[in-house]
């Protein structure tokens, strides 16, 4: 239930953040797919001991939950992992799992700046620190929205 609410709140923001009617139609056609990706990210994060709201915020920022997203740098999937860092043991690769494993490693090495390192690797820069701040703010906003929803629900 918790992860479902997180995903629904995030997707609501995605839909409300645009004014282009054609983009809204495109989003509507892929809502179920994006919701499934969000659930996958949340459940796999939870299984690895990562806060789902952090993983959801990263996947939102990186790909808007598009499973087939490829960046100009060649990063793939919802978590936007560079193929050279994929740890595929079976085919097809699980870019969500691999992205979360990479995040988990950064969390162990750099507990305070892991989001910056997830974005930039070993050397954080100004852009990666801004990225980390966006993720932190989105995760905090999700937490606050979820707290309000669950509080309203229990009243």
Describe what is shown at a glance.
The protein has helices spanning 2-16, 21-29, 31-47, 52-63, 95-109, 114-120, 126-154. With 155 residues, it is mostly helical. The protein is globular and about 40 Å long.
Topology of this protein?
Blueprint: H1 2-16, H2 21-29, H3 31-47, H4 52-63, H5 95-109, H6 114-120, H7 126-154
Fold and architecture overview:
This protein is mainly α. It has a single domain, classed as Lysozyme (Orthogonal Bundle), CATH 1.10.530.10. Helix content is 67%, strand content 0%. It has seven helices and no strands. Helix 6 crosses helix 7. The two termini are 18 Å apart. The model has no long low-confidence stretch (mean pLDDT 85).
Structure characteristics:
67% helix, single chain, mainly alpha, Lysozyme, globular, 155 residues
Give the low-pLDDT segments. Answer: none
Under CATH at level 1, the class stands as Mainly Alpha
Helix percentage range: 55-70%
- Count the helices. How many? 7
Structural class: mainly alpha
How far apart are the first and last residues' alpha carbons, in Å?
18 Å
What is the H-and-E element order? Answer: HHHHHHH
**Count of β-strands:** 0
CATH architecture label: Orthogonal Bundle
- Assign the CATH topology: Lysozyme
Q: Tell me what portion of residues adopts beta-strand conformation.
A: under 5%
The largest sheet, given as strand count, sense and whether it forms a barrel, is:
none
How many domains is the backbone divided into? 1
Mean pLDDT: 85
Shape: globular
Based on CA atoms alone, the radius of gyration comes out at 15 Å
